[in-house]
Each structure stands twice: as structure tokens, then as C-alpha cells.
Amino acid sequence: MKAAPRNIRSMSDEELETWLSESGEPRFRARQIQEWLWGKNVSDFESMSNLPAGLRDKLKREFVIRHLTVEKTAFSRDGTIKSAYRLLDGKIIEGVLIPTPQRITACISSQAGCSLNCAFCATAALKMMRNLGADEIYDQVVLARNQALEILRRPLTNVVFMGMGEPLLNYKNVLRALSLLQARFGLAMGAHRFTLSTAGITKMILRLAEDGVPCKLAVSLHSAIPEKRTRLMPINESNPLKDLRSALIYYTSKIGRPVTLEYLMLKNVNDQMEDAHALLKFAKSFPCKINLIEYNTVPSMPFEPSPSEQIDTFQQFLKKHGLIATLRKSRGKDIEAACGQLAGQLLPESVQHKSLPVH
Length: 359
Fold this sequence. Notes:
This protein is α/β, with parallel strands linked by helices.
């Protein structure tokens, strides 16, 4: 039985060049094919008009071109857009488009589900299903870009890997996607427009530094008290705060730019002055800025958002001691698109639905 055609967008540059060589075709055709696949996002080989007809026929026999699709889209009162994306194997992930007067940011996923079991996050309830391929990550950005242009009438400016999953546990595919998104034959987006967010996988933070990965880094901290962070984020048992701090000291010295510490404000959990003192001590060790984040209630989870007065006291303490501490307001809460609310479920039939092409 003949094997099913391979999705050509899952191939590396080297694999494509090898296939071309073994098929009697010049290797330089690989770049032309990549430009069609990524820059122009074509869905069929016949569109590759600068390739010889014989090569197009070979490609059609051996490969298929597959893209993500937008299953449903929900629109928040505050302008936030949440999309349910159907993956190539039928699984569902979610992504969010967040407009502000200054920028439009796409929050994308790197995994279907997540293995880290953070106590405050809806994605944790799904457990880990699989890593996303580089093409599936790339398509989320293309679809978000199309939404920005077609719905908001403005260009996409920033991309954050803060959706479903832990990007540093899908290192190879995330870096491949970043490379394609930044490539001139891809979307040609500058490295400064991308932020990877990690729960604190220390060995992979060190690898990011060694590899000089061209993007910004954010770390989900949520407590600088070891026992408390372990209760909130079980990853702290295998990647304790002292190791995380050492990794961030090395990262910032090697890369030469600050990191962002993400800190959910949870009522009577991590918003007291002892928590602020611990965070101050941790953050003073390396160049960073702190994002204090309003918690978004997730049904069945025993947390409440900190009162605004408590958040202000916490923030002013950090600023008084020389740290950059900003408050990130929740966006898209009415459509469960805010931080910690992505659960990878199909949206209700009642929400507005607008499918967009990937190309």
C-alpha cells in the first residue's frame, strides 16, 4: 500500500533540499518552494508558477499542503477576539488577538493541552495532548494577521507565546516557527516583536541563551516563596526558584536584555507584603520588569482576584524599591479569552462565527 502523501510544510529546509536532489532537481528550487509555502501561503502546487511543470507534478504526487482553519471566532466587548483553531488532526486549540491603541498582539499556543498542571490555569485541565508542529504555530500568526487586517483594519504588531502549552517543552518546533516568521521569505517580522513565555524550565532557558534565540523572554513566576510557588506551579519542584534565578542571571548577562516576570495577583494567596518582599529579593538579582496581572476567574478553581487596593499597594512597594512594575488589565473576560482561561474547547454556538482563509 502506498504511503499517504506527506504534508510538505512539516519538512525542514534540509529535508526539502535532499528530496529535490534525490528527485533530480536543483537544490535552489527549495527557496522558491519555501517562498510559496510561507510567504504566499499557497494551498496548491499549481500556484507555484515559477517552478517547471515537471517539478510541480512531482510535488503533487509526493506531497500535500495543509493549513490550520478557524473553527469559530468570538468577539469581546473590549475588542478582543478569540479563535478556536482546528489542527491538522482535528484537535482544537485557542488563540487570542488583543488590540490596544498602540499595538495589536496575537497570543498563540505551542501545544495542544499542557503537562504542567498550574493550579490557576484552565488549560491544565486538558492535560497534554501533543506538541504543535512549526507549521501549526506559523498558521496561527497568519490567521491572526488576517483577522487584524480584515476585522480591525490594522496590522498585527506583536506575537506572544502565552496561549496553551509550554513553548520551551516544544523547543524545536517553536524555534523553527520563529525562524519562518522572521524570515524574509516568510512574514519578515522583526525579532523584537516576539515574546516566549515559560513557566521556568531552567535548562531550556540556559539553552535559549546559548542559542541566542532572537526574541524576548517572559517567565510566569506568580510567587517568589518556594513552598507557595510549588503549590501554584508544580514545575517548581523540579525547577526550583534558586535554579531559576541562576538561569535568569545567566540569560540576561548572555543576551543583554531584561526579562519580564509575570505575576498573577491572587487574593490572600500571593498578594501580601511578605510576597512583595520575596518578589523584590528575587527580581533584584537580574535586569527585569514585572507584569502584575489581574486574575481571571476560572470555574471550579478556588482563586479570586486581588482587590484593586491591594494590587496598588503591592505595585507601589515594588516601584518604591526601584523595580519596574506595571499592571496588565484583563482583556476578553466575557469570552473566556483572558490569561489562564484558554481551555481548547469549541466555543458556544451563540458566538459570532467568521472563518478566514490562511493565505
